[in-house]
Design brief:
The complex is a heterodimer of chains A (115) and B (817). In chain A, 8% of the residues lie in helices and 37% in strands. In chain A, 44% of the residues are buried. Chain A has a four-stranded antiparallel beta sheet, with no helix packed on it. With 115 residues, chain A is mostly beta strands. In chain A, strand 6 and strand 7 form a beta hairpin. Chain B is α/β, with parallel strands linked by helices and 817 residues long. A five-stranded parallel beta sheet of chain B has the order 5-2-1-9-21, with no helix packed on it. In chain B, helix 10 crosses helix 13. Classes of the chains: A mainly beta (115), B alpha/beta (817). Chains A and B meet through strand 1, strand 2, strand 5 and helix 1 of A and helix 17, strand 41 and helix 26 of B. Bound molecules: siroheme, flavin-adenine dinucleotide, iron/sulfur cluster and FE2/S2 (inorganic) cluster. The site of siroheme has 20 residues of chain B, from strand 34 and strand 38.
Chain lengths: 115, 817
């Protein structure tokens, strides 16, 4: 499915999330952390660190990365990949902003539910 | 499939390294349990001598701290000597009753110091030199002063002697052979070394055969008597005459043991599920007493634990002596012989002696004294068996003289081949260091150490590594540079703090802009540090940046491993009441809080609270008068007290009341790291004031103020700041000290580390003697409290940071489809 034909689900306004912060979206397949960077980009990752399950939404957001609050692994928000010496990947849900509203890709959400 | 279980007996240098290799290759393969007879984590045993001489502290030489084990999910049983292994049920049991099952077992029990069976060997004051406890005993003896006699003029004996001398003791070294370190040095170098030790005021006696240790009548050492009848008075005797592989355990379970535990090339013992590693091993007839070979074994085992098929082929070793100011290097075989030639260089004025032993145009032995920078180069030629006939004329002058023109030291390093070994302990060659510096963009020695291990063990090649950094990075490398705050800036904490003040920087973006941060938004290390510096320096102007605070300080509760939170309300000075207890009980029931616990800080912790419930929990607690206990803050935590003169028959002052006053005055303040206080009513010290960040011990004549204690990762008794007469003075001094620390401390630096860096005399002078300065500190603290003493819980109950506690959206499956 290409980006143009995807379906999107609105989850709230950009202003609901503080800059360099995150909020949680609860789904039946676990929480998603939605991040807002200092430049107002948004990214969404599963709210579960591949290391020991730390809630990434509670980490410190810096640049386009987040540091897990439990043991300081750092993840790239765009790819979900662990940085530096650590290895791991957090599932990504595609996110975008339209007219100040944050949208998540429905097929990504569906895939999570199915998995 | 559940993970395989790996059990390790002994937590010395060899298994420490093996785990690093193993984790690097596969973090998930094993569930690891370690038993260690020593009551501590893994530290760099080679560095005990600098700890003894006072040039380093224990904390400087820790290799893997408690955090490391926690982070990797490794269970470490400290003070747990393994006494039994059952090979049928595959279990290991320690003397203190801990049992663990293994799929694979590694025995790494190291070696035991050899004790000469002299009469009197069991007296108090007869010591060995193997672990930190030995060093502590020597340091305690040094504090009493007097003479130490060291038996053994080998590597360990001489390092012990030099260290004890630096600690102010009179020292005699007794050595059985005619020259010192005869196994590593030829007589000429041994002689030079002896002269150097004598110059330092150490009494060296060679050909000295000990006869008996003399009892003072109370079971303590009084003196040592030699075979020739001479008697030397001594407070302690350190036996450093050699080591024996520690094989008792292996033998008792029927493994094949000779001098050491016998292993094949794959490092397995006679039981295929049991490996042996380190000094306890015997491989092809050789036992080793230096780390380089052990690290090679470690790598082989790590690979074989992961179904690899590595083999260990034995090692050639080189020795260096780590006594500051003595340069000595030796490798190979340097006995004289018909078929051997030698090249010798002596420069008496410079105190230099170098000797190379050649056989068939190859170097087979090298002894360098006074100037050792060519040691690794000679060792490299030796190991490779290079034919040196072409450079024979200039060989002894070193690498710089090879080729046409003499090279300067830097050019010599640049000219080294990529496979030249730089760090002997860790077997790291030049090429690996240079590529790692380039690939990982490293610019401090610490980073290079962390990534390559070069100079991470005995440290004697640090200079060479720094030269390599210089060669690789050019002007970008400044060896005198301080350790940077983090990867986002080359500046250290001190410089950043100074520039924040002098350039009047008042926001995080402006600090990053002005000080030329190299990342766009900083990282999780520098952001909280900068936020603290700004809070501390501009209390009235700076708007606290919550997004730069660690989660606990953002939501004012402690995050737990499962993502729930714990809540600890203040109980001033540890006092509580029926009303408070009832309110806590009600909250626990109402929110179904799974665990309630008395903390080590004299108050109550409610654990396992869902994040969304936090504001409601606080609201109820707030109604009963509770405020946050800030159990999460880099700020004032607890003030522990004892019952004091109100109740206790020994109490000299109202310690409870004073503790409460201090807590009420200081709560809410942010500090570089957490700050814990205690007040005891008398020197019996029931509130443990003498291991706190700041402690007060009440005495009849007033109040003794203590500070810089530690009782967490490190244990350290406090320093005494001084004695004051009134409670009011206590408050002023304690607060002024805290403010001085707030203004100077580096983020996450506890008060005892700061004090050590700044100097106890300096602090005492500024707080106890310079009255104007103390008053100024006090006033600055009082000013900043105007902005800090706001209960974060009630703020959040009133709606602040609501977004932190509620999900943004809740999805059912239908919405997603
Ligand atoms: C709750 C408590 C244990 C208990 O059940 O008794 C506790 C719990 C934690 N301690 Fe502690 N410490 C507690 C008393 C202590 C004490 C004893 C004391 O205060 O008298 C010490 C030794 C003294 C000291 O402060 O060094 C102590 C030394 C540590 C350390 C080592 C600090 C160090 O620099 O050496 C850490 C790790 C750190 O801070 O990096 C730590 C870290 C922690 C953390 C915050 C671990 C973490 O980062 O998540 C734990 C939080 C649990 C929670 O959510 O409640 N805790 N911790 C105690 C709370 C006291 C309070 O009322 O506020
Ligand atoms: C002061 C000093 C200076 C040194 N300097 C150098 C140097 O400059 N260069 C160099 O290459 N080498 C040096 N060495 C030697 C080097 O430290 C050792 O070769 C190395 O530490 C051996 O490592 P290991 O893991 O085999 O044993 P160790 O590091 O000795 O560790 C063995 C551990 O096992 C524990 N243990 C023993 N039995 C049991 C049991 N039954 N159950 C549980 N635990 C047990 C012991 O308590 C100990 O902690 C020095 C040694 C000392 C003491
Ligand atoms: S409460 Fe303290 S001692 Fe206990 S596990 Fe946590 S950090 Fe360690
Ligand atoms: S759970 Fe995220 S770093 Fe450990």
């Amino acid at each position: 499915m290409t980006a143009e034909t995807r379906n999107w689900v609105a989850i709230g306004a950009l202003s609901d999330i503080p800059r360099e912060g995150a909020r949680v979206v609860k789904t039946s397949a676990g929480c998603i952390a939605v991040f807002r960077t200092v430049n107002d980009e948004v990214y969404a990752l599963d709210d579960r660190c591949p290391h020991k399950g730390g809630p990434l939404s509670q980490g410190i957001v810096h640049g386009t990365s987040v540091t897990c609050p439990l043991h300081n692994w750092v993840f790239d928000l765009a790819t979900g990949l662990a940085q530096g010496a650590d290895n791991g990947k957090v599932p990504v849900t595609t996110a975008k902003i339209e007219n100040g509203t944050i949208l998540l890709a429905a097929d990504d959400l569906a895939r999570r539910t199915a998995a | 499939m559940s993970k395989q279980k790996l059990v390790i007996v002994g937590n010395g240098m060899a298994p420490g390294r093996m785990l690093e290799y193993l984790l690097e290759k596969d973090k998930e393969a094993y569930e690891v349990t370690i038993f260690n007879a020593e009551p501590r984590v893994n530290y760099n045993r080679l560095m005990l001598s600098p700890v003894l001489s006072g040039e380093k502290t224990y904390e400087d030489i820790i290799t893997h701290g408690d955090d490391w084990y926690a982070e990797h999910g490794i269970t470490l049983h400290k003070s747990a000597r393994v006494s039994n292994i059952d090979r049928t049920s595959k279990t290991v049991t320690s003397e203190n009753g801990v049992t663990a099952t293994y799929d694979k077992l590694v025995i790494a029990t190291g070696s035991n110091p050899f004790i000469i069976p002299l009469p009197g060997k069991d007296l108090d004051g007869v010591l060995t030199y193997r672990d930190l406890d030995d060093v502590d005993k020597m340091l305690a003896a040094a504090e009493r002063g007097g003479r130490a006699v060291v038996i053994g003029g080998g590597l360990l004996g001489l390092e012990a002697a030099a260290g004890l001398k630096m600690q102010g003791m009179e020292v005699t070294v007794l050595h059985l052979m005619p020259t010192l370190m005869e196994r590593q040095l030829d007589p000429a170098a041994g002689h030079l070394l002896e002269e150097e030790f004598k110059r330092r005021g150490i009494d060296v006696r060679t050909k000295a055969n000990s006869h008996e240790i003399v009892d003072d009548g109370n079971g303590n050492v009084k003196a040592i008597r030699l075979d020739d009848g001479a008697e030397i008075e001594a407070g302690i005797i350190v036996m450093a005459v050699g080591i024996r592989p520690s094989t008792g355990l292996a033998k008792s379970i029927g493994l094949d043991v000779n001098r050491g535990i016998l292993v094949t090339d794959d490092m397995r013992t006679s039981d295929t599920d049991i490996f042996a590693l380190g000094e306890c091993v015997e491989h092809q007839g050789a036992c080793y007493g230096l780390v380089a070979p052990l690290y090679e074994m470690a790598e082989v085992i790590a690979d074989n634990l992961l179904e690899g098929s590595s083999g260990y082929a034995g090692s050639v070793t080189a020795t260096k002596l780590k006594v500051t100011g003595v340069d000595l290097y030796s490798a190979g075989d340097f006995a004289e012989g018909e078929d051997r030639e030698e090249i010798v260089l002596r420069d008496a004025a410079a105190g230099v002696y170098k000797r190379l032993v050649l056989k068939d145009d190859k170097i087979i032995g090298a002894v360098l004294y006074g100037e050792t920078s060519d040691g690794p180069w000679f060792f490299d030629l030796l190991k490779k068996g290079t034919d040196v006939s072409e450079m024979r004329e200039t060989l002894i002058f070193g690498q710089a003289y090879q080729g046409s023109a003499p090279l300067d030291p830097m050019a010599a390093v640049a000219a080294l081949p990529d496979d030249a070994e730089i760090c002997g302990c860790n077997g790291v060659c030049k090429g690996k260091i240079v590529t790692t510096i380039r690939e990982k963009d490293l610019n401090s020695l610490d980073d290079v150490r962390a990534h390559t291990k070069a100079s991470a063990s005995c440290g004697t090649c640090s200079g060479l590594v720094e030269q390599l950094m210089q060669v690789t990075l050019g002007d970008a490398y400044n060896p005198a540079a301080v350790t940077p705050m983090c990867g986002c800036t080359p500046l250290g904490h001190d410089e950043v703090r100074r520039l924040i003040k002098s350039k009047e920087l008042k926001t995080i973006p402006s600090v990053m802009q002005e000080l030329e941060w190299t990342t766009s938004g900083g990282c999780a290390k520098c952001r909280p540090a900068l936020n603290y510096y700004l809070v501390s320096d501009w209390p009235d102007e700076y708007a606290d940046d919550y997004q730069s605070r660690f989660i606990n300080e953002r939501v004012h509760a402690n995050i737990q491993k499962d993502g729930t939170y714990s809540v600890v309300p203040r109980m001033w000075g540890g006092m509580t009441s029926s009303k408070e207890l009832r309110a806590i009980a009600d909250v626990v029931d109402k929110f179904d809080i799974p665990a309630v616990k008395c903390t080590g800080g004299q108050r109550i912790d409610m654990l396992g609270i869902k994040k969304e419930d936090l504001p409601a929990v606080w609201e109820d607690l707030g109604k009963a008068g509770f405020v946050s206990g800030q159990a999460y803050a880099k700020g004032l935590r607890t003030v522990k007290t004892c019952v004091g003169s109100d109740w206790c028959r020994f109490g000299t002052q109202d310690s409870t009341g004073l503790g409460i006053k201090l807590e009420k005055f200081m709560w809410g303040s942010w500090t570089p790291a957490k700050l814990k206080l205690a007040v005891s009513g008398c020197p019996r010290n029931c509130s443990e004031a003498t291991c706190k960040d700041i402690g007060v011990v009440c005495v009849d004549s007033g109040f003794e103020i203590h500070y810089a204690g530690a009782a967490g990762l490190d244990i350290k008794g406090t320093e005494v700041l001084g004695l004051v007469k009134t409670e009011k003075e206590v408050l002023e001094h304690v607060v002024a000290l805290t403010q001085m620390y707030r203004e100077q401390g580096w983020y996450l630096e506890r008060i005892y580390k700061w004090a050590k860096r700044v100097g106890y005399d300096e602090i005492r002078q500024q707080i106890m003697e310079d009255h104007d300065r103390r008053k100024a500190y006090f006033e600055r603290f009082v000013f900043s409290q105007k902005f800090a003493q706001v209960d974060p819980w009630s703020e959040r109950v009133s709606g602040k940071d609501k977004h932190e506690f509620n999900p943004m959206a809740v999805f059912t499956r239908e919405a997603a489809e």
